[in-house]
Predict the structure.
Amino acid sequence: MFRGAITALVTPFKNGQVDEEALRHLIEFQIANGVDGLVPCGTTGESPTLSHDEHDRVIEMTIDAAKKRVPVIAGTGSNSTAEALRLTRHAYEAGADGALIACPYYNKPTQEGLYQHFELIAKNVPIPIIPYNIPGRTGINMSPELIARLAKISNIVGIKEASGSIKQMSDVINLCGKDFAVLSGDDIFTLPLMAIGGAGVISVVSNVAPADMAGLVDVFFAGDMAGAKDLHYKMSALIDMLFIEVNPIPVKAALALMGKIEYEYRLPLCKMAEANFKKLKKVMINYGLI
């Protein structure tokens, strides 16, 4: 159902508020450069520091701006099952095409607790759901066996995999079958994951280089492995730099350098260390982005 290069959108701020005009311009930039989908209010969108009203508004704005040209997969995760259910229901009622639901963080539930969390949401909201496995942030790994159980629920249609383990990704693909979309949660794993049967990526780097990430996926699925490898290596230094500090600090700095958003975050996130900012600027100059 979901395949290709899907951008995990930043949330632009201006004077402490969501910058709606900048968000709409970012969405146009993404669609014009060939991305296959948009994710508002994910980790990259600083969802933990959005109010509930802001969270709902950003999703509504993204759906409105996209105008069904590409799917909108709304970030609706929470460490509270009741809150994740409310957010997911809102996304469905607002017209989102899917929901990306991060594995509950801090609670450290058991595998059975994780199953019941996702099962409850899926059975109560008839929207395509993609769980998001990112143990580095949540403190708990969704096992391949758990993901295979969840794949049997009709509207759980894929997984965003950011475990950092190609072995885990391989096991998930093997256990879940070809109709279950395994999407990379790490830009650098996009090509290796597709090579073993993955469906694409939910990407950070495509915020700043959407044409190249979309191009990598497109040429790979067209059978041009050499072209895909060229784009993989072209983007590798940029990917490294966009994770020199915790996401989304560098990618928002990069977009600010490109003049697309204000250089603004919400605490506890803050501007880059000056030395890292200079490194980022040099890589972006070399890449031709500024």
Observations:
- The beta strands are 4-8, 13-14, 17-18, 37-39, 73-75, 98-102, 129-133, 158-161, 181-184, 200-203.
- The first helix runs from residue 20 to 32.
- The chain has one domain: 4-224.
- Residues 4-224 form a domain with the TIM Barrel fold (CATH 3.20.20.70).
